Protein backbone atom coordinates (compact mmCIF):
# COMPACT_ATOMS: atom_id res chain seq x y z
CA UNK A 1 0.00 0.00 0.00
CA UNK A 2 2.88 2.34 0.73
CA UNK A 3 6.58 2.58 1.50
CA UNK A 4 7.77 1.42 4.89
CA UNK A 5 10.62 2.96 6.84
CA UNK A 6 12.76 -0.17 6.77
CA UNK A 7 11.88 -1.42 3.29
CA UNK A 8 9.86 -4.42 4.48
CA UNK A 9 7.12 -5.10 1.94
CA UNK A 10 3.54 -6.22 2.47
CA UNK A 11 2.10 -3.39 4.55
CA UNK A 12 -1.65 -3.28 4.03
CA UNK A 13 -4.12 -1.39 6.21
CA UNK A 14 -6.83 -4.03 5.79
CA UNK A 15 -4.45 -6.78 6.90
CA UNK A 16 -3.43 -4.73 9.94
CA UNK A 17 -7.08 -4.24 10.87
CA UNK A 18 -7.65 -7.99 10.60
CA UNK A 19 -4.61 -8.73 12.79
CA UNK A 20 -6.04 -6.43 15.47
CA UNK A 21 -9.52 -7.96 15.27
CA UNK A 22 -8.16 -11.52 15.42
CA UNK A 23 -6.00 -10.80 18.46
CA UNK A 24 -8.85 -9.04 20.26
CA UNK A 25 -11.20 -11.95 19.52
CA UNK A 26 -8.64 -14.46 20.82
CA UNK A 27 -8.07 -12.55 24.06
CA UNK A 28 -11.79 -12.38 24.73
CA UNK A 29 -12.18 -16.10 24.09
CA UNK A 30 -9.43 -16.70 26.64
CA UNK A 31 -11.35 -14.63 29.19
CA UNK A 32 -8.65 -11.98 29.53
CA UNK A 33 -9.48 -9.03 31.77
CA UNK A 34 -9.91 -5.55 30.32
CA UNK A 35 -6.56 -4.56 31.82
CA UNK A 36 -4.77 -7.54 30.27
CA UNK A 37 -6.44 -6.89 26.92
CA UNK A 38 -5.28 -3.26 26.98
CA UNK A 39 -1.69 -4.27 27.73
CA UNK A 40 -1.68 -7.02 25.10
CA UNK A 41 -3.12 -4.76 22.40
CA UNK A 42 -0.59 -2.02 23.16
CA UNK A 43 2.21 -4.57 22.85
CA UNK A 44 0.75 -5.83 19.57
CA UNK A 45 0.62 -2.28 18.21
CA UNK A 46 4.28 -1.67 18.98
CA UNK A 47 5.21 -5.06 17.54
CA UNK A 48 3.41 -4.34 14.25
CA UNK A 49 4.84 -0.81 14.05
CA UNK A 50 8.41 -2.00 14.52
CA UNK A 51 7.93 -4.76 11.98
CA UNK A 52 7.79 -2.01 9.34
CA UNK A 53 10.30 0.37 10.91
CA UNK A 54 8.14 2.75 12.93
CA UNK A 55 9.00 3.17 16.63
CA UNK A 56 5.47 3.10 18.04
CA UNK A 57 1.80 2.70 17.22
CA UNK A 58 1.11 6.44 17.15
CA UNK A 59 3.37 7.26 14.21
CA UNK A 60 2.58 3.94 12.52
CA UNK A 61 -1.15 4.66 12.36
CA UNK A 62 -0.50 8.24 11.23
CA UNK A 63 1.62 6.90 8.37
CA UNK A 64 -1.11 4.46 7.35
CA UNK A 65 -3.62 7.31 7.47
CA UNK A 66 -1.51 9.29 5.01
CA UNK A 67 -1.26 6.22 2.78
CA UNK A 68 -5.04 5.93 2.70
CA UNK A 69 -5.39 9.60 1.79
CA UNK A 70 -2.79 9.09 -0.93
CA UNK A 71 -4.85 6.24 -2.40
CA UNK A 72 -7.76 8.66 -2.83
CA UNK A 73 -5.83 11.60 -4.27
CA UNK A 74 -7.32 11.14 -7.74
CA UNK A 75 -10.85 11.06 -6.33
CA UNK A 76 -10.83 13.54 -3.45
CA UNK A 77 -8.81 16.77 -3.47
CA UNK A 78 -6.75 16.80 -0.31
CA UNK A 79 -3.66 18.25 1.31
CA UNK A 80 -1.64 16.72 4.12
CA UNK A 81 -0.66 18.89 7.08
CA UNK A 82 2.15 17.60 9.28
CA UNK A 83 2.43 19.71 12.43
CA UNK A 84 5.26 19.04 14.82
CA UNK A 85 4.80 19.26 18.62
CA UNK A 86 1.75 21.47 19.12
CA UNK A 87 1.88 23.87 22.06
CA UNK A 88 -0.51 26.43 23.56
CA UNK A 89 -1.94 29.22 21.45
CA UNK A 90 0.22 32.19 20.52
CA UNK A 91 -2.60 34.73 20.12
CA UNK A 92 -6.03 33.23 19.45
CA UNK A 93 -8.55 32.70 20.88
CA UNK A 94 -6.26 34.12 23.58
CA UNK A 95 -2.59 33.55 24.44
CA UNK A 96 -1.68 30.40 26.36
CA UNK A 97 -4.87 28.39 25.84
CA UNK A 98 -4.34 24.63 25.98
CA UNK A 99 -6.33 21.49 26.75
CA UNK A 100 -4.83 18.32 28.18
CA UNK A 101 -1.24 17.37 28.93
CA UNK A 102 0.72 16.90 25.73
CA UNK A 103 4.35 15.92 25.15
CA UNK A 104 6.62 18.60 26.60
CA UNK A 105 3.86 19.82 28.93
CA UNK A 106 4.06 16.56 30.89
CA UNK A 107 7.73 17.36 31.53
CA UNK A 108 6.81 20.82 32.80
CA UNK A 109 4.16 19.44 35.14
CA UNK A 110 6.49 16.78 36.55
CA UNK A 111 9.32 19.28 36.96
CA UNK A 112 7.25 21.97 38.67
CA UNK A 113 5.81 19.44 41.13
CA UNK A 114 9.27 18.16 42.03
CA UNK A 115 8.76 14.74 40.45
CA UNK A 116 11.11 15.15 37.49
CA UNK A 117 14.69 15.14 38.70
CA UNK A 118 16.51 14.03 35.58
CA UNK A 119 16.20 14.34 31.82
CA UNK A 120 17.28 11.82 29.22
CA UNK A 121 18.29 13.35 25.91
CA UNK A 122 20.55 15.73 24.05
CA UNK A 123 20.10 19.26 25.41
CA UNK A 124 21.50 20.74 22.20
CA UNK A 125 19.01 18.86 20.02
CA UNK A 126 16.24 20.88 18.40
CA UNK A 127 12.75 20.43 19.79
CA UNK A 128 10.35 21.27 16.98
CA UNK A 129 7.27 23.03 18.37
CA UNK A 130 4.52 25.18 16.91
CA UNK A 131 1.62 26.99 18.65
CA UNK A 132 -1.86 25.55 18.07
CA UNK A 133 -3.35 28.66 16.44
CA UNK A 134 -0.56 28.70 13.85
CA UNK A 135 -1.43 25.11 12.93
CA UNK A 136 -5.10 26.06 12.51
CA UNK A 137 -4.19 29.06 10.36
CA UNK A 138 -1.93 26.93 8.16
CA UNK A 139 -4.78 24.45 7.64
CA UNK A 140 -7.21 27.22 6.63
CA UNK A 141 -4.77 28.84 4.20
CA UNK A 142 -3.84 25.45 2.70
CA UNK A 143 -7.53 24.72 2.09
CA UNK A 144 -7.98 28.07 0.34
CA UNK A 145 -4.87 27.55 -1.79
CA UNK A 146 -6.02 24.05 -2.76
CA UNK A 147 -9.49 25.29 -3.71
CA UNK A 148 -8.05 28.05 -5.91
CA UNK A 149 -5.26 26.09 -7.55
CA UNK A 150 -5.87 22.37 -7.48
CA UNK A 151 -2.48 20.69 -7.61
CA UNK A 152 -1.08 17.22 -7.05
CA UNK A 153 -1.36 16.28 -3.40
CA UNK A 154 0.84 18.60 -1.35
CA UNK A 155 2.42 17.93 2.04
CA UNK A 156 2.97 20.88 4.37
CA UNK A 157 5.36 20.54 7.29
CA UNK A 158 4.20 23.02 9.93
CA UNK A 159 6.96 23.49 12.46
CA UNK A 160 9.80 25.72 13.58
CA UNK A 161 13.00 23.68 13.29
CA UNK A 162 14.18 25.34 10.07
CA UNK A 163 13.05 28.94 10.49
CA UNK A 164 13.27 29.46 14.26
CA UNK A 165 14.90 26.50 16.03
CA UNK A 166 14.34 25.92 19.75
CA UNK A 167 16.61 23.63 21.77
CA UNK A 168 15.98 21.47 24.83
CA UNK A 169 18.55 23.58 26.68
CA UNK A 170 16.25 26.58 26.14
CA UNK A 171 13.33 24.67 27.67
CA UNK A 172 15.47 23.68 30.64
CA UNK A 173 16.44 27.31 31.21
CA UNK A 174 12.90 28.68 30.82
CA UNK A 175 11.42 26.09 33.17
CA UNK A 176 14.04 26.64 35.87
CA UNK A 177 13.70 30.41 35.76
CA UNK A 178 9.90 30.42 35.72
CA UNK A 179 9.31 27.93 38.53
CA UNK A 180 12.12 29.37 40.65
CA UNK A 181 10.27 32.69 40.57
CA UNK A 182 6.76 31.20 40.60
CA UNK A 183 6.94 27.90 42.52
CA UNK A 184 4.03 25.49 42.48
CA UNK A 185 2.19 25.30 45.81
CA UNK A 186 1.58 21.67 46.72
CA UNK A 187 -1.46 20.21 48.48
CA UNK A 188 0.16 20.90 51.86
CA UNK A 189 0.38 24.59 51.02
CA UNK A 190 4.16 24.54 50.65
CA UNK A 191 6.11 25.84 47.64
CA UNK A 192 7.96 23.24 45.60
CA UNK A 193 11.59 24.30 45.27
CA UNK A 194 13.02 23.30 41.89
CA UNK A 195 16.62 22.87 40.84
CA UNK A 196 18.22 22.17 37.50
CA UNK A 197 17.62 18.57 36.53
CA UNK A 198 20.36 16.00 36.10
CA UNK A 199 20.89 15.44 32.39
CA UNK A 200 21.74 12.02 30.99
CA UNK A 201 23.01 12.35 27.46
CA UNK A 202 23.08 8.67 26.51
CA UNK A 203 21.06 5.50 26.98
CA UNK A 204 24.04 3.92 28.74
CA UNK A 205 24.07 6.62 31.43
CA UNK A 206 20.31 6.23 31.91
CA UNK A 207 20.51 2.46 32.25
CA UNK A 208 23.32 2.77 34.80
CA UNK A 209 21.28 5.31 36.77
CA UNK A 210 18.21 3.07 36.82
CA UNK A 211 20.24 -0.01 37.70
CA UNK A 212 22.06 1.48 40.68
CA UNK A 213 19.29 3.68 42.00
CA UNK A 214 16.18 1.56 41.48
CA UNK A 215 16.67 -1.91 40.02
CA UNK A 216 19.10 -2.94 42.74
CA UNK A 217 16.43 -2.12 45.30
CA UNK A 218 14.26 -4.78 43.72
CA UNK A 219 17.01 -7.35 43.31
CA UNK A 220 19.17 -6.56 46.35
CA UNK A 221 17.57 -7.71 49.60
CA UNK A 222 17.07 -6.13 52.91
CA UNK A 223 18.36 -7.35 56.22
CA UNK A 224 18.21 -6.15 59.80
CA UNK A 225 14.45 -5.91 59.56
CA UNK A 226 12.80 -5.35 62.91
CA UNK A 227 9.04 -5.49 62.81
CA UNK A 228 6.02 -6.89 64.54
CA UNK A 229 4.28 -9.55 62.46
CA UNK A 230 0.90 -8.55 61.04
CA UNK A 231 -2.18 -9.38 63.08
CA UNK A 232 -4.88 -11.04 60.97
CA UNK A 233 -3.01 -9.89 57.88
CA UNK A 234 -2.94 -6.22 58.89
CA UNK A 235 0.51 -4.68 59.59
CA UNK A 236 0.64 -2.83 62.96
CA UNK A 237 1.26 0.90 63.08
CA UNK A 238 4.39 0.25 65.15
CA UNK A 239 6.09 -1.61 62.30
CA UNK A 240 9.67 -0.39 61.95
CA UNK A 241 11.80 -1.31 58.98
CA UNK A 242 15.51 -0.58 58.78
CA UNK A 243 16.39 -0.98 55.13
CA UNK A 244 19.92 -2.10 54.38
CA UNK A 245 21.12 -3.41 51.04
CA UNK A 246 22.39 -6.97 51.02
CA UNK A 247 22.86 -9.67 48.35
CA UNK A 248 19.51 -11.14 47.41
CA UNK A 249 16.73 -8.64 46.77
CA UNK A 250 13.47 -7.17 47.88
CA UNK A 251 11.91 -9.88 45.76
CA UNK A 252 13.53 -12.59 47.89
CA UNK A 253 12.74 -10.75 51.10
CA UNK A 254 9.14 -10.53 49.98
CA UNK A 255 9.01 -14.29 49.47
CA UNK A 256 10.85 -15.03 52.73
CA UNK A 257 8.41 -12.97 54.79
CA UNK A 258 5.29 -14.49 53.24
CA UNK A 259 4.79 -11.59 50.83
CA UNK A 260 4.73 -9.05 53.66
CA UNK A 261 6.43 -6.59 51.27
CA UNK A 262 4.21 -7.44 48.30
CA UNK A 263 2.64 -3.99 48.17
CA UNK A 264 6.00 -2.20 48.28
CA UNK A 265 7.55 -4.56 45.74
CA UNK A 266 4.61 -4.48 43.31
CA UNK A 267 4.25 -0.70 43.45
CA UNK A 268 7.95 -0.04 42.86
CA UNK A 269 8.16 -2.70 40.15
CA UNK A 270 5.12 -1.23 38.37
CA UNK A 271 6.56 2.29 38.41
CA UNK A 272 9.95 1.15 37.12
CA UNK A 273 8.37 -0.89 34.33
CA UNK A 274 6.24 2.11 33.37
CA UNK A 275 9.30 4.38 33.13
CA UNK A 276 11.28 1.82 31.14
CA UNK A 277 8.35 1.33 28.78
CA UNK A 278 8.04 5.07 28.16
CA UNK A 279 11.76 5.36 27.49
CA UNK A 280 11.58 2.43 25.09
CA UNK A 281 8.68 4.02 23.19
CA UNK A 282 10.15 7.53 23.03
CA UNK A 283 13.81 6.53 22.60
CA UNK A 284 13.88 7.51 18.88
CA UNK A 285 12.88 11.08 19.77
CA UNK A 286 15.11 11.65 22.80
CA UNK A 287 18.24 11.94 20.68
CA UNK A 288 16.56 13.03 17.46
CA UNK A 289 18.74 15.48 15.55
CA UNK A 290 16.91 16.50 12.42
CA UNK A 291 14.93 19.35 10.96
CA UNK A 292 11.87 19.25 8.72
CA UNK A 293 11.87 20.83 5.28
CA UNK A 294 9.08 23.41 5.24
CA UNK A 295 9.64 24.75 1.72
CA UNK A 296 6.03 24.02 0.73
CA UNK A 297 4.80 25.78 3.86
CA UNK A 298 6.98 28.81 3.12
CA UNK A 299 5.51 28.97 -0.39
CA UNK A 300 2.09 28.87 1.25
CA UNK A 301 3.05 31.79 3.51
CA UNK A 302 4.25 33.77 0.49
CA UNK A 303 0.98 33.07 -1.31
CA UNK A 304 -0.98 34.24 1.73
CA UNK A 305 1.03 37.47 1.95
CA UNK A 306 0.33 38.35 -1.67
CA UNK A 307 -3.23 37.14 -2.16
CA UNK A 308 -5.08 37.20 1.17
CA UNK A 309 -6.56 40.50 2.28
CA UNK A 310 -6.79 39.11 5.83
CA UNK A 311 -3.17 37.95 5.81
CA UNK A 312 -2.48 39.31 9.30
CA UNK A 313 -5.35 37.24 10.64
CA UNK A 314 -3.93 33.97 9.30
CA UNK A 315 -0.42 34.16 10.73
CA UNK A 316 1.68 30.99 10.90
CA UNK A 317 5.29 32.10 10.52
CA UNK A 318 7.37 30.75 13.44
CA UNK A 319 10.01 33.43 12.82
CA UNK A 320 7.63 35.91 14.44
CA UNK A 321 7.93 34.08 17.78
CA UNK A 322 10.34 35.17 20.50
CA UNK A 323 10.66 31.81 22.25
CA UNK A 324 11.79 33.24 25.57
CA UNK A 325 8.85 35.63 25.73
CA UNK A 326 6.45 32.94 24.52
CA UNK A 327 7.45 30.33 27.10
CA UNK A 328 8.00 32.68 30.04
CA UNK A 329 4.90 34.84 29.53
CA UNK A 330 2.46 32.73 27.51
CA UNK A 331 2.99 28.98 27.40
CA UNK A 332 4.15 28.10 30.92
CA UNK A 333 1.61 30.43 32.60
CA UNK A 334 -1.01 28.88 30.31
CA UNK A 335 -0.31 25.28 31.31
CA UNK A 336 -0.17 26.30 34.98
CA UNK A 337 -3.61 27.88 34.62
CA UNK A 338 -5.33 25.24 32.49
CA UNK A 339 -3.51 21.98 33.23
CA UNK A 340 -1.98 22.01 36.71
CA UNK A 341 -4.20 20.51 39.40
From TrEMBL:
Assigned keywords, A-Z: Lipid biosynthesis, Lipid metabolism, NADP, Oxidoreductase
Gene3D superfamilies, per the entry: NAD(P)-binding Rossmann-like Domain
Superkingdom: Eukaryota
GO biological process: long-chain fatty-acyl-CoA metabolic process; suberin biosynthetic process
Residues of the Fatty acyl-CoA reductase C-terminal domain: 261-341
A Pfam family that the UniProt record links to this protein: NAD_binding_4
Matches recorded under InterPro entries: FAR, FAR_C, FAR_NAD-bd, NAD(P)-bd_dom_sf
Membrane-crossing segments per the record: none
Reaction catalysis annotation: a long-chain fatty acyl-CoA + 2 NADPH + 2 H(+) = a long-chain primary fatty alcohol + 2 NADP(+) + CoA
Signal peptide range: none
Molecular function in Gene Ontology: alcohol-forming long-chain fatty acyl-CoA reductase activity; alcohol-forming very long-chain fatty acyl-CoA reductase activity
Enzyme Commission no: 1.2.1.84
Enzyme superclass (EC): oxidoreductase
Known function: Catalyzes the reduction of fatty acyl-CoA to fatty alcohols.
Family from the record: Belongs to the fatty acyl-CoA reductase family.
Protein name: Fatty acyl-CoA reductase
